[in-house]
Amino acid sequence: MQQGTTDRRGRSHPPQCTTSREDRQIVRMTVTDRSVTSRTIAQHIEFVTLHSMSERTIRRRIQQSGLSARRPLLGLPLTQNHRRLRRQWCDERRMWVAEWNEVVFTDESRICLQHHHGRIRVWRHRGKRMLNSCVMHHHTGLARGIMAWDCIGYPSRIPLVHIAGTLNSQRYISEVLEPVVLPYIQGLATAIFQQDNARLHMTRIVRRFFVNHQIELLPWPARYSDLSLIENMWSMVAQRLTHITPPAATPDQLWQLLGLLYPKNSFKVSLNQCRGVWQR
Q1: Sequential DSSP letters for 149-207
Q2: Where does the Transposase Tc1-like domain lie (predicted)?
C-alpha cells in the first residue's frame, strides 16, 4: 500500500476582467474629472478596448485605489490674488484667541424654498475634502425665498431681521444698523464689527455711519464669505431645512422655520469650525 501526501488546494478566483493598464486609466479618468460617473468611464473603456465592462467593476477598481464617492465642498472660484489676500489675512490673526470674543459677525443671506439635492458626488481620498479639484464652485443667484440678516457675538446673538424686498445702503442703515446694531454694540465693553465687502456695505454713507459712531471694523478680504461664522450658521440651517417634511411651501412658512432651526450657542459652534481653517 502506497503512502501519499495531501496538500490544501488554493481557492480559485475568477480571472480579473481588466488589465493593469485599464485600471490605471480608470483611476486617471477619475482623478482628472472628480465628478465623472462610472457609466461614463465604462463607455469610454468599451470604446477604446472594444470590450464591455460593468459599472460595478469600474466602481470596484476606483475603490481599490483608495477613492470613494463623497459630496463635494461648495466654494467660490478664487484667483491667485484672492488666495494671497486670504492667506495674508489669516497670517495676521493666526495668534488671535481672546480677540475673537470681541468680534461681532454679521451677514445677510437669502434662503431659498428649493435647496440643492446633494446628489452630485466627487471621487476623493479621505481627508481631501478641501482639494480644489473636489470643490464644486458655484455663483450666487436669485431664487424664490426670503432674505434675513443676522448678527452673532460671543456674549449673545441678535434675533433674525427679516429683510423685505431689495436691501440698499440707506435701508441697511435705517433698518439694520441704527435700530439693531448700534444698541447691541453700545452694550458691549469692546467690539469689532465684521461685514463682508458687498457693495451696499462699502458705500460712503455706510462707512460714514461707522466713523461717526466710532465702531471699529474688521478688515475682510474679497470672496471670504466661506470662512465667516455666519456662513457656517446659514449652512447648518440650510442642511436642516432639507430634512423638514413637508418642506416650506411659502416664504412665510420658511421664515417661521428659520427661528426654530437656527442653532443655539451659534458663536461657539462656528468659531470651533473656523479656527482650525484660520490657523492652517
Answers
A1: EEEE-SS-EEEEEEE-S---HHHIIIIIIIIIIHHHHHTSSS-EEE----GGGSSHHHH
A2: 23-93
Cα-based distances in Å from 78 to 47, 124, 151, 195, 277: 36, 21, 26, 19, 16
Residue 215's SS3 state is coil
E strand or H helix at 241: helix 229-241
Task: Read off the amino acid at residue 205.
Answer: I
196-220 per-position pLDDT tens digit:
888 999 999 999 999 999 999 999 8
Give CA–CA dist 30/60, Å, rounded: 13
pTM: 0.65
> For residue 66, is it left (φ>0), alpha (ψ between -120 and 50) or beta?
left
Adjacent-strand bridge partners of 158: 151
